[in-house]
Amino acid sequence: MNTADEGKNSLSRDQQQARQIARRLITSHRSERAGGDTAARAAAAACDHLYRDLSRWVGPDGCHALFTRALAQARTEYPALEQIQLRARSEPYIDGVGETIMAHGDAPTAEALESMLVRLVELLGRLIGDDMAMKLIERSLAASERGEATSDGRREEA
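^ that's the sequence the OP posted. Answer follows.
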């Protein structure tokens, strides 16, 4: 293995933490959904939920900008994301998941959406600091794991 390959395979501590958070978000949505849902659909549900929750803190436009940037970054590595569209202020927020699963398969779609979530966590950390980003995401994750609806449209104090 050459040094370029080693660099690709070694993740920094922040990247590992972002990946762990993304996987926890996805897992929390997979466990609460019916058995027929796929990994890709759980990843899309996690994105939808996180968009709604983060919109309360950074506003819908700011949150959409973060997701748009994360999607653009992930698309460079995951061609499956080409059919994925973000629909600001819509339900669902992530569109094109079914078509992407049909074209690329469930596992590649799930992996691509997870990558987008990882990039989102990293972007948010760079923007507001890793500690504050983790607090906001952990709140969303905790509410999701408890099965609470957290998107009532109000902003809260951190």
